[in-house]
Specification:
It contains 6 helices and 13 strands. By secondary structure, the protein is of the alpha+beta class. It has one domain.
Length: about 250
């Protein structure tokens, strides 16, 4: 029992896969305990958590929202994920992948919105009525002002989901406010009233301008980014993390 994280109705909750089960999310995952990991001050090995046999996800949506959004958007997202996975497997070691995808942009984007509703607290729906409206009306076009949706491609086996997080860049004084879902072959970042937290992220907000039934061939350049830590929007390679750690220890010494 609980409050649906999209429509806000209180009642029995159903298990929402994030991403959809058909998009490489049907196998068990280990859900790390972020507090234990932070206390241990280490990325790996995982210090605690639990196995989730059904895949990545949680009891976050009412049956109606789960059923409707899965029916409207789920398969379109999975089809795009399969194309991306094929491109990723052929582009070993590439930093970017330029490819043409055949997809339903509007359906894909709205599936991504559903994933953010599930990975955020109930506040996302409570405070952003317009976003709920766009998500639950399959025919609606456009996105609320100030909202950014960004994408990258990844083969990292470490999954990452975070609710809205604040970050201050002390070099330029800029503040960033974002949420992230990363599960191969994709990662997505939602921003609110701020610039991109990483220039390599591809803006896919324009996907929302298409009609629900519009199948399109889109040429996209997606950066291949790594997920090696629990920190949202940290795409450092293992070598970069090691170098930063050495620099930090050197500075401390
Ligand atoms: Zn609902």
């Amino acid at each position: 029992m609980g409050k649906c994280q999209i429509c806000g109705v209180v009642g029995p909750l159903s298990f929402e896969h994030v991403p959809p089960e058909s998009a490489f999310n049907s196998r068990p995952v280990f859900l790390g305990d972020i507090k234990k990991q932070l206390d241990a001050k280490t990325v790996l090995p995982l210090k605690g958590g639990k196995q989730c046999q059904r895949g990545s996800g949680a009891y976050t949506l009412c049956g109606k929202c789960n059923s409707n959004t899965g029916h409207w958007y789920g398969s379109a997202y999975a089809e795009w994920a399969v194309q991306a996975a094929c491109n990723l497997s052929r582009a070993s070691g590439a930093r970017t992948i330029d490819a043409t995808y055949t997809l339903y942009p509007s359906r894909v984007l709205k599936q991504v919105l559903c994933m953010f509703f599930s990975s955020n607290s109930k506040g996302l729906g409570r405070y952003h009525d317009a976003l709920v409206g766009v998500t639950l009306n399959s025919r609606a076009r456009g996105l609320p002002d100030g909202l950014g949706v960004l994408a990258f491609i990844t083969k990292s086996w470490l999954l990452r989901q975070s609710g809205f997080t604040g970050r201050l860049d002390t070099r330029n004084g800029r503040g960033y406010f974002f949420s992230e879902v990363a599960h191969p072959p994709f990662g997505f970042v939602m921003t609110w009233d701020c610039p991109k937290p990483d220039d390599r992220l591809l803006d896919i907000r324009h996907f929302a301008s298409y009609d629900y039934d519009h199948l399109e061939r889109l040429a996209l350049r997606l950066h291949v980014l790594e997920v090696n830590t629990w920190t949202p929007c940290d795409y450092r390679t293992l070598a970069e993390i090691e170098a930063d750690t050495r620099d930090g220890e050197g500075a401390a010494g």
